[in-house]
Protein: Lipoprotein-releasing system transmembrane protein LolE
Amino acid sequence: MTAVDTADIDDGRKPAAPTRAFSAFEWMIAGRYLRSRRRETFISVIAGFSFAGIMLGVATLIIVMAVMNGFRTELLGKILGINGHMLVQPIDQPLTDYDAVSARLQGVPDVVSAMPFVEGQALVSGPAGNFGALVRGLYESDLRRVPLIANNVRAGTLDGFDEGEGVAIGSRMAQQLGITLGDNVTIISPRGSVTPMGVTPRLKAYPVTAIFEIGMSEYDATFLFMPLEEAQAYFNMDTKATGIEVYVADPDRVGIMKDTIEEAADRPAFVTDWRQRNVTFFAALEVERNVMFIILTLIVLVAALNIVSGMIMLVKDKGKDIAILRTMGATRGSIMRIFLITGASIGFVGTFAGFFLGLLVCLNIESIRQFVSWLTRTELFDPTLYFLSQLPAEIDSGETITVLVMALALSLLATVYPAWRAARLDPVEALRYE
Structure:
C-alpha cells in the first residue's frame, strides 16, 4: 500500500461525492465561457452571429407563416363572403321557381341564407374608359345579408334598392371608370335584342346609388350589383334565375350537407361547394406555404451549424481549462454538461428573442409596411397584384410552438458533438506541453 493510500485511511477521509447534474458549479463555468475576454473575442463574435442567426431565422419563420395564414384567411373570407358556400344551379329546365326553392333551402338546418341571383358578364363604360364587369342581380333583402357589401358601403345607400334602377359598384371600378355617386354607368351586353339584321348589343345607363369597398381589389374592380328584376330584364331572363347561393353556418361542413341540399331543392339541380370552385387556388396557397416553411427552416439550420463551429473552437481554446477541471475531480459528464449549457444557452436565448421579435412585427405589420413604403417611395404591397388592400398577419399558436420546438431542438443537437469532444479530452495530453 502506498503512503498516499495509508494517509487517506489514517485520516478517515471519504472520496468526494460526484457533482450533481446541472449544478450551480456547471452553470457558473458555462456563464464564464459565454462572457468574452480580450483574447477570446473571435469566439464571442461567432457566438454572436449564431445568436443573431437563430433569432432572425425564428422571427422570419413566424412572420412569413403568419402572413401566409393571414392571406389564406382573408382571401377565404372575401371569396366565401361574396360567392356563397354552395351554389345550386338548374338542370334540364330553367330555374323559374327560384323563390320556392330558396324557401325550402332556407328551412334546412345550419343554412343561414339562400339567395336567388341573375348573373352575366358585360362591359361597363364611364368617362375614364371601358372595363369588363360581372353583373349580378339580387333582392335588396339578400344584398343586405351579405356583410361584405352591406357593412362596407363607402358612399350612397342600399335603401330602396329594389324599387329603383340604380346599381352598386366597387370603389376600384368607380375609380377606373372615373365616376362618383349619382353619375351614370353604361352597361353593354352582347346578348341584346334579335333583329332582322342580327343580334344587336344591349346598352343601358344606370345611376350609381352605392359604392362599396370589400378590400379585395379584384372584387372591388369587377362586381356590379343591380335589382334582381332589372337584371332579369336586362339579360332577357324573364322570370328565370341563374342559380341560388347558399350560405351555411360552418363552411367546412359543405361536403356533409350536399345531399341534404339536393333533397331540399326537390328539383333537378347541380350543387357545387366552395372547395370545388376554388380547389386550384387554395391548393397553390397550401403548397407555397409548405415550401416557404421548408426553405426558411434552412436559416435556423445554418445558425445551428454556426453554434457547432463556435463550440468546437471554444473547446480547443479551453483545452487547458478542461484538463485542470478534470484533475480537480470534474467528471466527463460534468464537462459535457458545461458545454451543453454554453451552446444551448445561445440557441435558447436566440429562439425566444426571435419569438418576441416576430410577435412584435406581426402585431404591427401594416404600420411597418406603410412606413417602409413611405421611406422608399415605393408600393410594397400592390393591391392589384396581391388582391388585398392591406397586409394581413394571423399567428397560429400550434404553428408557432412547432417553430420554437424545432429551433430549440436544432440548437441542442448542435451542441452535442462539441460537448462530447470536450468530455473525451485527455487531461495528460492537454497539459503535456504546458
Notes: The two ends are 31 Å apart (CA to CA). Strands lie at 86-90, 111-126, 129-138, 153-156, 167-170, 184-195, 198-212, 223-227, 243-248, 269-273. The longest helix spans residues 41-83.
